[in-house]
Design a protein that fits this description.
There is one protein chain. The chain is mainly beta. 8% of the residues lie in helices and 67% in strands. Strands 1-2-3-5-6-7-8-9 form an 8-stranded antiparallel β-barrel. The longest helix has 15 residues. It is elongated, with a radius of gyration of 21 Å. The N terminus is likely disordered.
C-alpha cells in the first residue's frame, strides 16, 4: 500500500515540476495551438460619448490560435462581450452595449519551460456599440444607438504554465488601446491546447 502511494506521489511530482519529463517547450521547435479566451477590458468610455453614462468593464469571451517556430508565436484571435456596469443615465434611460475586437497576434517567449513568460499582443480592429433605451410604444422599443469601428492594439505580458503535455494555462496583463477614445487596462485568462506537437 505504501509503495503504491509513493509511486503515485513520484508520478505526480514528475508531472508538475519544472524539471520533470514534461518540462519542455510548449509546441517544440515548430508547433501550434488554439485557446479559449476569457478577457476583461476597460474601454474607458466617458459619459459624453455614451448618452450621459460612463460605461466600461467588458467581460468578453473569445478564442485565439497560433503557429510557433522557435520562441515566436504568430496567429490571430478575437473576443466579444458586453458592459458589466451598464445602467441608467441622468434621464432615467437604460444605457448598455459592448465591444468586439480581433486581429493578428504575436508573442516572443522570453522563458519557455513548464513555466512561461511571453511578451506579445494583438493588433487589429474592433467595434463598439452603445444603446440608450428611450422608451416603448406598444411592443416596439425606441433606441438611440452609437456603433463605431476603430483600430485597436492590445499589448500584454503573459505568464503561462504547462499542467500537462500539450496544455498551457496563461494569464495576460496589458493595456487595450484604440482610436475613438477607447482605452484602458486589460487582462485575460486563456487555456491553450496544442494541436501540432
Amino acid at each position: 500500500m505504501h509503495n503504491r502511494v509513493l509511486i503515485v506521489l513520484v508520478l505526480l511530482l514528475a508531472f508538475v515540476l519544472p524539471n520533470s519529463a514534461h518540462a519542455q517547450r510548449f509546441g517544440g521547435e515548430f508547433g501550434g495551438g488554439a485557446a479559449f479566451w476569457l478577457a476583461y477590458v476597460d474601454p474607458g468610455i466617458s459619459s459624453d460619448q455614451s448618452f450621459g453614462r460612463d460605461v466600461g468593464q467588458v467581460i468578453a469571451l473569445g478564442a485565439r490560435a497560433f503557429f510557433q517556430t522557435g520562441k515566436v508565436r504568430l496567429g490571430a484571435g478575437f473576443f466579444s462581450g458586453g458592459f458589466t456596469d451598464a445602467g441608467l443615465n441622468q434621464d432615467g434611460n437604460q444605457v448598455d452595449g459592448g465591444l468586439s475586437s480581433g486581429g493578428f497576434t504575436a508573442e516572443y517567449l522570453a522563458l519557455q519551460q513548464n513555466f512561461e513568460i511571453a511578451v506579445g499582443g494583438m493588433a487589429g480592429g474592433g467595434v463598439i456599440t452603445i444603446e440608450e433605451r428611450i422608451g416603448t410604444t406598444g411592443d416596439i422599443e425606441t433606441l438611440r444607438r452609437r456603433r463605431e469601428s476603430y483600430f485597436a492594439a492590445y499589448p500584454w505580458v503573459r505568464f503561462g504554465y504547462n499542467p500537462a503535455p500539450l496544455v498551457n494555462v496563461g494569464l495576460e496583463l496589458g493595456y487595450y488601446a484604440g482610436t475613438k477614445d477607447v482605452g484602458g487596462f486589460a487582462a485575460a485568462l486563456d487555456i491553450v491546447v496544442g494541436l501540432i506537437p
